[in-house]
Structures are given as C-alpha cells and as structure tokens.
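Re: the request from the purification team.
They wanted to know what the chain is likely to look like in 3D before they choose a buffer screen. I agreed to run a prediction and write the result into the notebook, where they can find it.
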Amino acid sequence: MSAYLLKRLLTIIPTLLGITLISFFIIKLAPGNPVSLKIRAAEGLKTTQLSQEIQSEVMKLYGLAVDLPKGYEDFIADWTVRIHGSDPKEQPKLTRRVLNWVGQNAIQYKIWVFNMARLDFGISFKDHRPVLEKIKDALPITLALNFLEILIVYFISVPLGVFSALHRDSTVDRFTVFILFILYSLPTFWVAYLLIMLLSTPDHYDWFPLAGYISQDAESYPFWSKLGNIAWHLVLPVTCMVYGGLAFLARFSRNTALEVIKADYIRTAKAKGLKRRKVIWRHMFRNQLIPLITLTGTLLPELMGGSIIIEQIFSIPGMGKLAFDSVLARDYPTIMAITTITAVLTLVNLLLIDLIYVWVDPRISFKSLETA
C-alpha cells in the first residue's frame, strides 16, 4: 500500500505541472489583457499613442511584459530572418510575434510556479486584493451550496434508483423513470428564471429573495436567525442545482442495480433463504457502490468549483461567479489559483477513489491497481 501511495503521490506533481502549463497558455491565448480592458473602460484616454504608452508601463508593472534573455532574442532574430528574409522591429513579422509571445509567457509561467510553490498566488489584477483573500471570501458560500446539493442528491437518488429497480416495469417504476427523464431534460437557466418569476416577484408569489445569499441587515442578527436567513436565500439556488443531478444519479443507480440483480450471487443469496433486506443492502448494494464511487471522482472539485450559471443568475458571490468575473476581466492570478486548487482536489479525489475501491471490493488489491 505504501509503495502504491508513494507512486501515486509522485505522479501528482508532473500531472499538476502539465495541467497548469496548458491552462496558463490557453488563458493567455484569449484576446485582450487586463491592462487593455482597463484602459478602454477608463474615461478621457482617447489618444491611441497615450494609451499604448500607459499600457506598456502597466504591463511591466503587472509582470505581463518581461525582458527576454539575450540568447533567446538572438534566436528570435535568427529564425525571423531565415523565414521572412528580414526582421523589422517596427512592424514585427509573424515569427517574431509568436516566438516573443512564447518566450514571454514561458518566463511568466516559471515565475508563477515558483510563487505557487510558496502558496503565493499573487494580487488580483481586477481589484488589487490578494487572490487567496478573494477565494477565502467566496469559498464558504460555494461550500454551503454544493454541500447541500450533494447531500440531497445522494441521499434521495440512490435509494430511489434502487427502489425503482426492485419494482421494474411496475406502474411506480414507469412513473419514476418518466419524471426523472423530464427533470433531466429541463435546462437549469430556464428553471432558475421560471422560479424567480413565479416565487420571487410581487406579480405572483413573493416568497423568496430575488438575489444574494443573505439580507443586507442580517449580519446583526442572532446566529440562528442569521442561519435561517441564509437558508431562506438558498432555497431556490439549491433547488435549481439539485434536480438535474438527482435525475441523472437516480437513473444511473437504477441501471446499475438492474445489472447487479441479474448476477449469480444474488440468485444464490435468495436461494439460501436470506432475508430480502439483507440481500439488497449487503449483497446487491455493496457491489452497486463501485460504479457509484466512480461518479464521485469530481466530488471534491465540485465542492470547490461552484455553479457558474446559478451563481450568476442569483447574484451569489461564490467561486463560480468569482471564476466567471475573473475570466471576463482577464484576471490571470485569480484564474490560475482557482484552476490549480481545482486540479489538486481532482487528483487527490481520484487517489481517494482508488483507496475506497479496495475497501469496498475485496477482489481489488493495490497490486491490481498498480498493474491497471
């Protein structure tokens, strides 16, 4: 076991570097940069020349423009001349622009990796706050949302799927499958706007808040009153987040249960005269857990990631909204911090799943996992 764990932990490092490297360069491929976006939004800067001068200075201040090594500058000039026949600096050729972009971002990525190794994700380009501070503010809200979603989805969908499988082709089973199919087909954004229109506006039923996760004056409330206020705000967002996952997982649980029911060991257990409850929960459900465990591969990053659509619609300042706003603002430090944390959680989650496999199924061993 220790050898397997050591091997897996060692593979996490190069995998994480590969994920962050690809993410870093993909983010930089997006048109525009935080400096140009701010200059365009500023009032009174109409002169193109002035804007270019300010942009170059601020780019250096943000670390988005660095000096390339002399050897690499000579390499760029040499290959530009070889391909294009000349290397005018005033109007740079395509080769120079591409190689300069690669060199700039390679150096910036190297600096970012060294800072990340010290858990220093830098300062946000958008509001000049420490990135970890912004994540610290948004994370509890997203954890509350996603924890409630996962708790509701798994505690309802898995027993519902097993119940439906045990009553296959009955009226209850057909009705359940039909309802689950309808729920799975409904777009999240449409349901969110429909619930807001029906349950959050004076025109219909003004039962729930329109947006946010807490009332403006609720900070001064007693603990339980404040908790109730937050729960009141989260009813509609959690409802929108739950129904799709519940429908999918219930159908998946039903299908896996139907496959396990046909197995020989289930027929043998029944032939031995074991009680129905013991056959279901000790023999059938334990073997059904293996494909269900596979689905939990995104459980930890899902807790962190948030729902971009729901948080945007309901104006909830969680991780999803933070990521969306950061992409729009080209806030590279915040984007990379969220990407890195999500990647680490995903890799750790996959390792935990392999360990749970061994615990759930005695037929699986660490030796078989190493050879897989």
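For the purification team: The two ends are 15 Å apart (CA to CA).
Please add any questions underneath this entry.
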